[in-house]
Amino acid sequence: MKSFVVDQYAKGGALRLTDSPMPELRDNDVMVEIHAASVNVLDSKIRDGEFKLILPYRLPLILGNDVAGVVTRVGPKVRHFKPGDEVYARPAQDRIGTFAQYIAVNELDLAIKPNNLTMAEAASVPLVALTAWQVLVERANLQKGQKVLIHAGSGGVGTIAIQLAKHLGAYVATTTSTINIDLVKSLGADAVVDYKRDKFEEVLHGFDVVLNSLGKDTLENSLRVLKPGGKLISISGPPDANFAKQNGLSWPLQQITRLLSFGIRRKAKRRNISYSFLFMTANGEQLSQITTLIEANVIRPVVDQVFPFEKTNEALTYVETGRAKGKVVIAVK
After folding, report:
1. For the purposes of burial, counting CB atoms within 10 Å of the CB of 77, is it exposed (0-12), middle (13-18) or buried (19 or more)?
2. How are strands ordered across the β-sheet holding 2-6?
3. In order of start, what are the domains of the chain with their CATH numbers?
4. Enoyl reductase (ER) domain spans which residues (predicted)?
5. Which of 12, 73, 247, 304 has a C-alpha 20 to 30 A away from that of 253?
6. How many C-beta atoms lie closer than 10 Å to residue 29's C-beta?
7. Is-contact 37 122, C-beta < 8 A?
């Protein structure tokens, strides 16, 4: 099968188009013929080697973390899927590889594709929607009437998180650039801060939750908008010791993550705010709940551009510009 692989970690390096063997189909696996895959910032970070300590992939590695396609075969222990089913998923982090024609996915990580989405739209959903769900529902336990700040509202996670937070009954603020103000308002944002004109930490106050996907300065300034007892949850780091323990990292790596997050944890503690890092995990059951919201038109994906499979490197480069509204998708079939 055709695939795009990382041969060696290199910042900005190109993926190589090659012929790879078909994936192994385990007893609980579903073989998916890939129709579309989406590109995430995570893909470029993996290619650059930023996660090589905590995600020890064997190279060459087929890249890609989102998939939509059609089931062609199932393992002998699979109970919930059959050939011909239209499905989508974020594969488990140790079994990624959606920039290819086929992938084997554990059935627990898979869900039936929303019936009101195209394959390209469906492929844009899993990683960012599961991230939003795991931050807002699981980690933050966001309640009706609470106030949440979602940074980078026009991005992949942001466009979904705004809609999910509104569905949960929260007051939603977001940061974005001038050109994307109308977009984030259309998704349900109650307050929009144009980061090119204003400093969010000077105009927003008394928030219960912040979802951070940006850098160190934004992370630290977010403490100023949270009230005592608030939660600062970051998906862009720094990782903390709890993350290291949950992912079974060695004791030395646990100490490294503890040191990496020491500064922000100390500053948060002084303000009686909790800091945590979230690295989303594959979850077919949660994705099925997201499907229900999509089919009820509570959540709609935002797709900026669809690239043909052979232009996967161009798609990755475009995502790295940071200018995409919502998601960028690769049409594989």
Report:
1. exposed
2. 16-19, 2-6, 61-62
3. 2-125+301-331 (3.90.180.10), 127-277 (3.40.50.720)
4. 12-330
5. 12
6. 24
7. no
What is the Cβ-side half-sphere exposure of residue 211, based on CA atoms within 13 angstroms?
Answer: 35
Determine how β-strand 102-106 pairs with β-strand 110-112.
unpaired
Instruction: Name the 3-class secondary structure at 240.
Output: coil
C-alpha separations of 244 from 54, 235, 261 in Å: 8, 14, 12
**How far, CA to CA in Å, does 323 sit from each of 132, 189, 305?**
20, 19, 11
Question: Distance between CA atoms of 224 and 210, rounded to whole angstroms?
Answer: 11
- Closest listed residue to residue 102, CA positions, set 32, 37, 18: 32
267 Cβ contact list (under 8 Å, min separation 6): 220, 223
**Interstrand relation of 226-234 and 274-277 (parallel, antiparallel or unpaired):** parallel
Tokens representing 165 are 């937070």
CA angle (216 as vertex; 214, 222 as ends), nearest 5: 75
pTM equals 0.97
Q: Determine the 3-state secondary structure of 127 from DSSP.
A: helix
Q: In a structure prediction context, what are the per-residue pLDDT tens digits for the chain, which is 333 residues long?
A: 999 999 999 999 999 999 999 999 999 999 999 999 999 999 999 999 988 877 889 999 999 999 999 999 999 999 999 999 999 999 999 999 999 999 999 999 999 999 999 999 999 999 999 999 999 999 999 999 999 999 999 999 999 999 999 999 999 999 999 999 999 999 999 999 999 999 999 999 999 999 999 999 999 999 999 999 999 999 998 888 888 888 787 888 888 888 889 999 999 999 999 999 999 999 999 999 999 999 999 999 999 999 999 999 999 999 999 999 999 999 999
* DSSP 8-class letter at 24: P
88 in Cβ contact with 109 (< 8 Å): no
Helix (H) or strand (E) holding 294: helix 284-295
3 state DSSP class of 62: strand
